[in-house]
Write a structure and sequence with these properties.
- The protein has four helices and three strands; from the N terminus they run E-H-E-H-H-E-H.
- The protein is α/β, with parallel strands linked by helices and 98 residues long.
- It has one domain: Hypothetical Protein Ychn, Chain: A.
- A three-stranded parallel beta sheet has the order 1-2-3.
- Helix 1 packs parallel to helix 3.
- The longest helix is centred in the first third of the chain and has 16 residues.
- The termini are far apart.
Length: 98
């Protein structure tokens, strides 16, 4: 099975959606690829993925993540790499956004 994901948004909720689907699929031996474009590039940026914004008014989720032992985005990104998830950054967006 092959799974293709497009990551076009760059918030904390977006990161959890993208990496949860990617790691779950990869754990079942699916071939998984994620295409990161526009703000979605923040999910794999060397610094930006460490400080992704939560939607306004949803800050209470941060405590819920900790209580539920939900791994931080940085750990999910590492898990995806370990599971051989292919990550492709949109060259056009990188050129436009410098």
């Amino acid at each position: 099975m092959k799974v293709a994901i497009i990551a076009a948004n760059g918030g904390m909720f977006d990161a959890y959606k993208v990496f949860n689907i990617a790691t779950a699929a990869a754990a079942t031996d699916a071939e998984v690829g994620i295409f990161f474009t526009f703000e979605g590039l923040n999910l794999i940026h060397k610094d930006a993925h460490k400080q992704l914004p939560l939607p306004q008014g949803k800050e209470h989720f941060q405590e819920g993540f900790k209580k539920a032992n939900v791994p931080p985005v940085e750990e999910l990104l590492s898990m995806a790499k370990d599971l051989n998830v292919k990550m492709i950054g949109c060259q056009m967006t990188m050129d436009v956004m410098s």
